[in-house]
Structures are given as C-alpha cells and as structure tokens.
Amino acid sequence: MSNTTTESADRDQPEANDFDRRLREALDIANIPTLLLVLVQLTGDKRWLEEPYRPVRSRGVDDNDTGGLPTEIQDRIRNGAFDAIRAWHRNGEIAISEPAPQLLLEMMAASEGAPVPDKYAGIMTARLKAFSEPDTASLDGLVPPGFTALIVGAGMSGVCAAIKFQQAGIPYIIVEKQNDTGGVWHSHHYPGCSVDTPSHLYSYTFDGGDWSRYFPPQAEIDDYFRGVARRNGIYDHIRFGTEVLAADYDESEHVWVSRLRGPDGTEETVRTNVLISAVGLFAEPIVPDIPGLDGFDGPVVHTARWDSTLDLTDKRVAIIGTGASAMQLAPAIVDDVRSLTIFQRTRQWAAPFPKFHKPVPEPIRFLMREIPLYQHWYRIRLSWIFDSKVYPSLQKDPNWEDPQHSINAINAGHRRFFERYIREELGDRQELAPRVIPNYPPYGKRMLLDNGWFRMLTRPEVTLVDNADDGIDHISGNTIHTRNGNSYEVDVIVLATGYNVARMLSTLPIRGRDGLSIRDAWDDTDPRAYLGTVVPDFPNLFVLYGPNTQLGHGGAFIFVMECQINYVLKSLQAMFEAGIGEVECRQDVFETYNEAVQERHQQMIWTHQGMTTYVRNDKGRVVGNNPWELVEFWHLLNNADLGDYHVVESAVEVAVR
C-alpha cells in the first residue's frame, strides 16, 4: 500500500468508526420487522423470512418493535443487520435492487406475521419506487408554448402540486392567501394541536422528513411543509397574501380567467389553461346556533381561529364539542385551568397509541437519514398498518345480529377491544362509562387517538355534560344553561365544533361553462366529482382533496393526494401528446362513477343511521370519505383515459373513443 493510500485510510478510519458506533446504537432500538426487510434486500438471503426470525402478528396500529421475538433472536437480527448495513455503507452494493412483486409480498407477510393479499403488490412496488426515484418525469418538449396552470393554495396539496409541475417542466403560478405554506397546519395552533397519523406516514413519498416525534405537534408539521417547499425550490415562487376573488372559464379561448387580490390590496387578472384547487376541506368552521352565544360575557374562540394571546390560567373554561380538536385541546390545558366543563355532543371512539408524545430517539433519526432502505421499509409497513388493515371492519354484514352496536364480526371484536380500553382508562370512575362509550359501531365517526382524554375526564376539576342527557339550552351573561335547568358559570368558551366539510370549495368562487357556479352545480352542500378530481361543466379544473377522497378508515391522505396529482399530470401529458386544449369530464362517466361510490357506501359504516358525521351531508349522502380500499383508488387514479372526457382541439370538438 502506498503512503498516500495509507494516509487516506487513516483519515477515513475515525469516520468509519463513528458510523459503526452510531449504527450500533440505532440498531439496538430499531424496529425488528423493518430490519428483517432491510436484511433480505441487502443480502438476498431469504432465511431471514423464516423461523425463528418470523415476527408474531402485529396487533392494532402498534409498530411491533420487538416482533414479539425472544431477545436472543432479536440480537441475531440486529447483528446481521449491522454486518449487512456496514458492508453496504462501504461498497454500496444491494443484492436485490428492486424486489419482484411476489417477493415483496412474501417479505411483507413475514414482517407482519400475516398474509398480505396479492392485489397489494402493485401499490407497494410503486411506493418503494417513488421513495427511491422521487422526481417526476419531465414533459419538456411536450408542453405547448404559453401553457400555464394556476395552483390555488400552498398547503399540503398545493406545495406538492407545484413541486411536481416544476419537475415536469409545466409553467405554473401558485397563490396562497396566508403568509406562509402549511395550510391548516399554519392557521391552526390551539394548545395540543398535533397530527394523529404517524409522522413517517404523514410525509411526501419524495421527502420523508427528519421528525422529532412519532406524532409531531403542529409547529413541526408547519415547518416540514415549509422546508419541503424550500428544499425543492418552489417556496420563492409562491405568491403569499394573495386571494382568488373569482375564477371564470372563458369558453371561447379555453382558459380560466382568475381575479387575484394581492397583499397590498391590488387586483390583477391572470389567464391560465388549467386551474388546480388545493384549498382543502377544512376551511369553513362551524359556529353552533346557540341562543345567547353572541352575547356571552367573555372570550369565545373556535379551535380553527385560536387567539394566541388568550390566557386560560386559572380560568373556568367550557369546551363545546368532543371531536379531534377537543380531544387534543382538553388534556393540553387541564393542568392550567381552574375548571373544565365539556359539553359533549357525540360520544367518540378513541384508540390507544403507545407512541403518543414520544420522541423519535436520535439514533433512530440517524438510521432514517443515513439508511434510506430502513426508512422506506418502515414507511411501507406503516402504510399497511394504518391504511389497509382496518378496511374489512367497515363492511356491513346484512345478517349481523346486533347492527346497532357493530356491523360485522371483526367490527364487534374491535368494539370489545376499544370498550375494554376505555373502561381501563376510567379506572375507579366506571360511572362515566355509559356516558362516554358510543352506542354506534366503531369507525362510524372518524376514529380518534386517545392522548389522555378518558383519564382526564376522571379528574375532579373536569365536568362532562352529555347532550344525550342534558345539552345546552341557551347562554346568558357568563352562564351556560342546560335543558334540565343546570347552570355553569364560565370565563371562556371554546368551540371545538368542526367544519362544514360538505361546502367544499366554499372559499374559491368558481364559474364554469355558461357561467355555472360550483355552488349551484353542487347544490351548495352536495359535492360530487369523478375520481374526486374533475367535474362536468368545469373544463380544465382539477380539484385536489375533492369529494369522496378522504381516507375514513385511517392512514394518511397525503398519498391519495399524490396519486391525484399523478393523475392530473398524466391527463395533461395525454392532452399535450394529442394536441388537445380542453378536457371536460363526460356526464355519463361522472354519473356512473358517483353511483358506484354511493352504492359502495350503502354497504359501509358511514351510512349507518346510529350517528351523525361530518362526512355525510344534509341529504344523507356521504360526500367526504372514500369508499374504495386504498389499493382500489390507487388503481383508478393510475390511469388517465381521455375517453372519459369531452375534448376540444383548436376550438373544434372531437370525439375520443
């Protein structure tokens, strides 16, 4: 060995030793089922999928960190992973660069301790590929001269759309009425505000983030979206403080004419070929119609419009509502207030989640950053656990013996588990159980994650007023009066009453063909779209997070939104290649699809009449939740067919068969 080579090796040695030390620290606490997947891909050795290394079946939404395996077996896996990862770090070699679909299913089934259906091979393969090849293919050379898209909103959907359009080489304008990115994660900052989806799942496929917590707080999520926008070079292109006052379709020129108002009040008009709505669902807070609320003698604040100057120390606080925001807010403030009175409109199911408020240890963050395969496989497993496993429990069994409380055998089992958990949390306050355990099936309303809610209800300074027994009648002065004649003096009222989700796009005044407004097209509260994305009479309009796209059975919508954007890009590519300037969803395609959506919903939990839910409108139609299994919806959005559209080329309508 030459002196030069020796000197280089000496310099590299401390760095290698430091990597080995940090790797050992990480592997000592790493997730065993994930390590097995990494081992198989790095080494090609399938014995890691067999006994005695095969984990026990994952339970619920738990990560199953130890795999349920004896310590000796865990140590073998950790040592094997150390050798394989260290070798990869030094030579960059991966035995199986892209696992074949059947092998991928075999690997996942082994890591979960249970079979994974064949139909998931495609979506899992696609997600793995998206992790390792994050950039969208360029359409440079296909985009017509002067073509531009307007993206409205720079939250989760808008930021992603802008990044993908930029990668594809499609010119765009992006506007955001707030002063920063993040959408609801920028505007919502009530105490305890956090995500109830694991952070490594609540991330773009192309940017997994470097999360400090498994379920991070609002500020960290807000920072994540801002950071993604900056890292991908689109942040400085966003026109902040800019609102769309009106967007009208010009049929003669096949363009959208949008009137914008900037941060200084100046108005301008822009003409774009395509309009992308990325305004989201949670834009219009619901203020309950309670007599006397307007005259309450004290602060009244909605969780969606939190006043950061509001001091709740030693205050008598009333919370109206018991949904997701209330379940986060109440435990976060209970130590500060003098008393907390909760007016419960609906009882809620809530599941335990062991990693609530737990930090991601620095060694695991190192593993996520430095070993991409570990992060990729960890996220694939999370997707299976949160997105897919619960779907069978949402299906109605027409012969089920107790349809009021559950809808099938699996659902009944979940009910027993959740009810047992709630009773355990209530401890010696079992008299609360009939007032907090729902009388409708699990998943009928959005399944919440318990962050100490039930234990909080047992505290002496907390009073629960259940609407089923004694709801609010009216408010006078600083007193809330109930139907049974009870009175509660309070200093502050917090409205945790949710959003008018059925009035989708309420903040975006849109008029399509013949001046038809989206409000009229949707009868205000009855939104419908083909694939949740396109609507007849509104050519070249694409709606992200549109009707029937929300994952009501759990998991992260962020992947569905990426699938929608992929569908939009494929549609635009097909338009460019065919020389088409306008696409408008065919009415028959639209009707057939929406009939199928509602037909599927009739067989599912959200049409159960035992509860009210924000995903069902005043006409009884489910407008928010997606009835499809995630893998089904992925397949639907994976194919953009111009045959689903009326198309116009050079102002002449042509038929596409």
Short summary:
The protein has about 650 residues and is of the alpha/beta class. The protein has 19 helices and 22 strands.
Order of strands across the widest beta sheet?
Answer: 3-2-1-7-19
Overall mean pLDDT stands at 93
- Approximately what portion of the residues adopt beta-strand conformation? 5-15%
Distance between the termini: 69 Å
Helicity range: 25-40%
- How would you classify the helix and strand content by structural class? alpha/beta
**Count of helix runs:** 19
Helices and strands, with pairings:
Layout: H1 3-27, H2 32-43, H3 71-91, H4 101-112, H5 121-132, E1 149-152, H6 156-168, E2 172-176, H7 184-187, H8 218-231, E3 238-240, E4 243-250, E5 255-261, E6 267-272, E7 274-277, E8 300-302, E9 316-320, H9 324-333, E10 339-344, E11 350-351, H10 362-370, H11 372-388, H12 409-426, H13 433-436, E12 448-449, H14 453-457, E13 462-466, H15 467-470, E14 472-476, E15 479-482, E16 487-489, E17 492-495, E18 510-511, H16 518-521, E19 541-543, H17 557-578, E20 582-585, H18 587-602, H19 630-637, E21 645-649, E22 652-654
Parallel strand pairs: 1-2, 1-7, 2-3, 4-18, 7-19, 8-17, 9-10, 9-17, 10-13, 11-12
Antiparallel strand pairs: 4-5, 5-6, 14-15, 15-16, 20-21, 21-22
Helix pairs in contact: 1-3, 1-10, 2-3, 2-4, 2-11, 4-5, 5-11, 6-17, 10-11, 17-19
